[in-house]
Design brief:
With 157 residues, the chain is mostly helical. It is 57% helix and 6% strand. It contains six helices and three strands; from the N terminus they run ααβααββαα. A three-stranded antiparallel beta sheet has the order 1-3-2. Strand 2 and strand 3 form a beta hairpin. Helix 1 packs across helix 6. The chain is globular. 15% of the residues are buried.
Length: 157
């Protein structure tokens, strides 16, 4: 189930990336408490996806640990864990007294590597869906529905 979540979120973000690049959309955090994916991992994935889509740019400030914890009704340690992992990965910078920001440095991932990774994810996702008895057409139809329907968000900055 966890792997299916990762493939779904990745494909939905890539599908919507092409339609959202013209105008910068505000970034919202949303949790799916029934997905089986740890909450801290969902926060990490959403920050990474926001960066990939351009919703989060270098220098953008993220909510404070306390504010996000209150707004999402989660433990502050969960938010701290996600922020710490993103900071260790070089994606966030924390400035004492001013907050947490998206790092200025860009991820160095060449276009060929990005395409290879996307192809691998799509193939694995299609294979898992096929093993579960779904066709590629059904999968694409559901992903299109997901891309066109905004989920209910629990945090709106």
């Amino acid at each position: 189930m966890t792997t299916l979540y990762y493939y779904t979120i990745t494909l939905v973000y890539y599908m919507t990336a092409k339609t959202n690049t013209a105008a910068r959309l505000p970034f919202h955090f949303a949790l799916d408490l029934h997905s089986g994916v740890p909450v801290y991992r969902q926060l990490i994935d959403q920050v990474r996806s926001g960066m990939a889509l351009g919703s989060l740019n270098a220098g953008d400030q993220l909510p404070t640990v306390r504010q996000m914890a209150v707004d999402l009704a989660i433990n502050p340690n969960t938010v701290m864990r996600a922020y710490r992992e993103l900071e260790l990965g070089g994606l966030l910078e924390t400035h004492q007294g001013t907050g947490t920001f998206i790092a200025k440095k860009k991820l160095d991932r060449k276009d060929a590597e990005r395409e290879r990774q996307l192809t691998q994810l799509a193939n694995e996702f299609a294979a898992r869906a096929g093993a579960a008895g779904f066709t590629v057409e059904e999968l694409l139809e559901r992903l299109s529905e997901l891309a066109s329907q905004p989920k209910q968000r629990r945090y709106k900055p």
